[in-house]
Write a structure and sequence with these properties.
Helix content: 25-40%
CATH class of the largest domain: Alpha Beta
Structural class: alpha/beta
Largest sheet: 8 strands, mixed
Shape: elongated
CATH superfamily of the largest domain: Zn peptidases
CATH architecture of the largest domain: 3-Layer(aba) Sandwich
Distance between the termini: 26 Å
Number of helices: 14
Bound molecules: ligand BES, manganese (II) ion, zinc ion
Strand order of the largest sheet: 8-9-11-10-14-18-15-16
């Protein structure tokens, strides 16, 4: 898909389709008004006859509008003018793109980027439009033998901006949007890949491939033999029941020379989580292929970062592993010695994410990190608390928490903070080991983060629980590509890149 920006007047456009907004009830946007005038009130007459009310997401495709140079005009309902918010803006763009893609326009000039969205500038509107476009065009069909593709797909879209002065902001928005969307696609592709193909070795392969594409990226794979040497007793125990070797991929992006401390991103990479001996119930168990969503998100963000060529140092760690029941599997009651030396009594083998992450979080101390963010589909409790809309954010460092919340707000990839008070730590007490891996039913997301916090004392740390946000269930099942957008925004902000006006 090719994107560009320009600043032109609607009646001068000569394109396969020109896209303009109509507000509810039957009110033309400024651009639609201009088209209406030169077409001799063709559009307003249609509205008067009731063809389009202007409700958000309504579409009306017109052909051969009098005096208009473009072949088609697509009228897009934008709802009430004062109520147009960020979510609606993205939805309108997505719907527009699917409509264009299915109705034969291979190129279009879109004026929706000029709509007023409260508090948002041209940079934001164009970037979101690029991301929403790429999101709605995504499909995972590499394993289908018959691929359905539109006969005349949309190939080129021009977003119009109100003034020439805003062109540079629009261009930057396209670059950033494309890099983020590319990372999101990488994330979706690996996350959607089935667990018989996407195992820890497959994750490691993706990590290595990134290094072949970018000079500033190198990858090191830690295998089980090296994990033994490192005494990663907890991580190794979780993979014990699987025939697929646990592999931890360490991706280094050097964008700022050797003197600058790295930002470290750690992603949970359970390529399948059956629960192990504490086996999960059968319903929707297939969705546990998405238990590597954290690793997929980190891999996606590393891709975006490399494409943006940001002047910072970042290390991404994919904690690859598979949790299976087997004669060699670890069991409830086992006491594990973690790489940190602390001991853990296993009360439920399905609370495995924290057991692989804790050793990875100890491992990354060696990088003397500026900060560490781990990303994990860690708890079902997070889905109960926040649903599919917000990622759970927990942190022991307020400035870092605020930085991440800002990035989520800017990118539209929402997160919500939960407390991490010491009061919750008691739920992890064990009679036999330093603590257990299970905090009981109450506050499951928080006690999981409490567990991790016992391994992150040596640096600034935040934890993202993406259990509810990483994938969609139901008819439209699939990876969402979250939280690539938020993470990349965080890195953009950290590297001091200018964005809007
Ligand atoms: N990967 C799951 C968490 C999960 C469950 C994410 C459902 C998304 C949807 C994790 O490994 C897990 O099984 N967690 C347990 C923890 C419990 C045993 C303390 C959970 O949330 O039930
Ligand atoms: Mn589990
Ligand atoms: Zn899991």
């Amino acid at each position: 898909m090719e994107f560009s920006v320009k600043s032109g007047s609607p009646e001068k456009q000569r394109s396969a389709c020109i896209v303009v907004g109509v507000y509810e009830p039957r009110r033309l946007s400024a651009v639609a008004e201009q088209l209406d005038e030169i077409s001799g009130s063709y559009i307003s007459n249609l509205l008067r006859r009731g063809d389009l009310e202007g409700k958000s997401g309504q579409m009306l495709l017109l052909h051969q509008v009098p005096n208009i140079l473009s072949e088609r005009v697509l009228l897009v309902g934008c709802g009430k003018e004062r109520e147009l918010d960020e979510r609606q803006y993205r939805q309108i763009i997505s719907k527009t793109i699917s409509t264009l893609n299915e109705t034969g326009s291979m190129e279009a000039v879109c004026f929706l980027s000029e709509l007023h969205v409260k508090g948002r500038d041209t940079y934001w509107k164009v970037r979101q439009a690029v991301e929403a476009t790429q999101d709605s065009l995504y499909s995972f069909n590499s394993l289908k033998t018959r691929k359905e593709e539109p006969r005349r797909p949309l190939r080129k879209i021009v977003f119009n901006v109100p003034t020439r002065r805003e062109l540079p902001f629009g261009e930057r928005a396209i670059n950033h949007g494309l890099a983020i969307a590319a990372g999101i696609n990488v994330c979706k592709d690996v996350a959607n890949m089935p667990p018989n193909i996407c195992n820890p070795a497959y994750l490691a392969e993706q990590a290595k491939q990134l290094a072949t594409k970018h000079d500033k990226v190198s990858t090191h794979i830690v295998n089980e033999a090296e994990m033994e040497e490192l005494a990663m007793g907890s991580y190794l125990a979780v993979g014990g029941g699987s025939v697929n070797e646990s592999l931890m991929s360490v991706i280094t992006y050097n964008g700022a020379g050797d003197d600058s401390k790295p930002v470290v991103l750690v992603g949970k990479g359970l390529t399948f989580d059956s629960g192990g001996i504490s086996l999960k119930p059968g319903e929707a168990m297939d969705e546990m292929k998405y238990d590597m969503g954290g690793a997929a998100g980190v891999l996606g963000a590393m891709n975006s970062l490399a494409q943006l060529d940001l002047p910072i140092n970042v290390i991404g760690v994919l904690v690859g592993c598979e949790n299976m029941p087997d004669a060699n599997a670890y069991r409830p009651g086992d006491i594990l010695t973690t790489m940190s030396g602390q001991t853990v009594e296993v009360l439920n083998t399905d609370a495995e994410g924290r057991l692989v992450l804790c050793d990875a979080l100890t491992y990354v101390e060696r990088f003397d990190p500026e900060l560490v963010v781990d990303v994990a589909t860690l708890t079902g409790a997070c889905v109960v608390a926040l649903g599919a809309h917000a990622t759970g954010l927990l942190s022991t460092h307020n400035p870092l928490a605020h930085e991440l919340l800002n990035a989520s707000e800017q990118s539209g990839d929402r997160a919500w903070r939960l407390p991490l008070w010491d009061d919750y730590q008691d739920q992890l007490e064990s009679p036999f080991a330093d603590f257990t891996n299970l905090g009981g039913r109450a506050a499951g997301t928080i006690t999981a983060a409490c567990f991790l916090s016992k391994f992150t004392k040596k640096y600034h740390w935040a934890h993202l629980d993406i259990a509810g946000t990483a994938w969609r269930s139901g008819a439209n099942k699939g990876s969402t590509g979250r939280p690539v957008s938020m993470l990349t925004q965080f890195l953009l902000n950290r590297s001091g890149q200018e964005q809007g006006e």
